[in-house]
From TrEMBL:
The keyword Iron-sulfur does not apply. This is Electron transfer flavoprotein subunit alpha. Residues 22-197 form the Electron transfer flavoprotein alpha/beta-subunit N-terminal domain. GO terms for cellular component: mitochondrion. InterPro entries: ETF_a/b_N (IPR014730), ETF_a/FixB (IPR001308), ETF_alpha_N (IPR033947), ETF_asu_C (IPR014731), ETF_asu_C_CS (IPR018206). CDD domains: ETF_alpha (cd01715). The electron transfer flavoprotein serves as a specific electron acceptor for several dehydrogenases, including five acyl-CoA dehydrogenases, glutaryl-CoA and sarcosine dehydrogenase. It transfers the electrons to the main mitochondrial respiratory chain via ETF-ubiquinone oxidoreductase (ETF dehydrogenase). The lineage of its organism: Eukaryota, Sar, Stramenopiles, Ochrophyta, Bacillariophyta. Belongs to the ETF alpha-subunit/FixB family. It is found in: Mitochondrion matrix. One of its GO terms (biological process) is fatty acid beta-oxidation using acyl-CoA dehydrogenase.
């Protein structure tokens, strides 16, 4: 029946349709609030040409705090957070609430949900958008960030997009005063959401920290990582790493920055013992100030660094920590 309704809408002339709203898909709430990445997505959503921007939250509880500028908040009260279920929730809201643009965030969560819902809606998605030139014209990275492509979406009826959160300012977080509950969403029943185990840290979250101190293979062993952690603690920074450091078992997986890790754009990024491979750069080169500490003067990281220190990190980092 839902599919029939959708087909009917597709056959309705554009002039007779009210397609006015952009739907922002919230990342899972943190302490009842939409997280930082969704605040950036909400800013991007305002640039997509629609009069109103709505928010969709899938999860047990409705949000207490949401991005400023949201017209309606739709809450799908399901604890099953599998991407299939979230995609079903988006599809239901798009088909029943007259939203013609869906915009998510190019995080791990968004990257599992957005292509899935695009397939369900039979739309070609545009993902990982860095810039919105016009409501249908987007700049996005290709080939691990080696080139920037300009993509014009020819989807006239509806668009499904994801944006890179570090490329857009965060909207203000405001109180959520009204929520519309959306029932009747089918939870995916071929797998079960058992739970999640979130690593706890006293340090800021790597994805949204304003300062990041990262170590690479040059740190030589996991036992040496505390040298970088001491500097991070002095600066109130998050700790990151290259994939070589993660693969060597020097530090946890979720510290990885880069193409297959986290994309960060802090005010200050300190890379110690990292060569600057393209896959690492694609995850940090939008940082406002980059400091590189490396013994090899030819290391590619110096090409993107604002400040380069051609020195042994085992001397430079402790000295820096002490002087701070
Ligand atoms: P190396 O390239 O070995 O560099 C170590 C550096 O430390 C050298 O420049 C050296 O001069 C310096 N050094 C050594 N000793 C010292 C010292 N005492 N003091 C100061 N400097 C010192 N990589 C990522 O980081 N993130 C990703 O997400 C990622 N995704 C990938 C995806 C794919 C599909 C592929 C193929 C690769 C990916 N990589 C990724 C791996 C990437 O290509 C590099 O291999 C990796 O980034 C190298 O890590 P590194 O700079 O720590 O190590």
């Amino acid at each position: 029946a839902k599919r029939a309704l959708w087909n009917t809408r597709q056959l309705t002339p554009a002039s007779h349709r009210i397609w006015a709203s952009t739907l922002v898909v919230s990342e899972p709430l943190v302490d009842g609030a939409t997280p930082a990445a969704t605040l950036s997505t909400a800013t991007a959503a305002q640039k997509l040409g629609n009069e109103t921007v709505d928010l969709l939250v899938v999860g047990e509880t409705a949000p207490t705090h949401i991005p400023a500028g949201i017209t309606k908040v739709y809450h799908v009260p399901l604890s099953n957070r599998l991407s299939e279920t979230v995609a079903n929730a988006i599809e239901t809201v798009v088909k029943t609430k007259d939203c013609n643009i869906v915009v998510g965030t190019s995080t791990k969560f968004g990257s599992t949900v957005i292509p899935r819902v695009a397939a369900q809606l039979d739309v070609s998605p545009v993902t990982d958008i860095l810039e919105i030139e016009a409501p249908n014209t987007f700049i996005r990275p290709m080939y691990a960030g080696n080139v920037l492509g300009k993509v014009v979406s020819k989807e006239a009826e509806k668009k499904v997009l994801s944006v890179r959160p570090t490329s857009f300012e965060k909207a203000e977080l405001v109180d959520c005063t009204a929520v519309e509950t959306v029932d009747g969403v089918a939870a995916f029943d071929k797998a079960e959401w058992v739970g999640e185990s979130v690593s706890k840290s006293d340090r800021p979250d790597l994805g949204s920290a304003t300062i990041v101190v990262s170590g690479g293979r040059g740190i030589k062993s996991g036992e040496n990582f505390p040298i970088l952690e001491a500097l991070a603690d002095k600066l109130g920074a998050a700790v990151g790493a290259s994939r070589a450091a993660v693969d060597a078992g020097f530090c946890p997986n979720d510290w990885q920055v880069g193409q297959t890790g986290k994309v960060v754009a802090p005010d200050l990024y300190i890379a110690a013992g990292i060569s600057g491979a393209i896959q690492h750069l694609s995850g940090m080169k939008d940082s406002k100030v980059i400091v590189a500490i490396n013994t090899d003067p030819e290391a590619p990281i110096f090409q993107v660094a604002d400040y380069g220190l051609n020195q042994d990190l085992f001397t430079a980092v402790p000295e820096l920590t002490e002087k701070l």
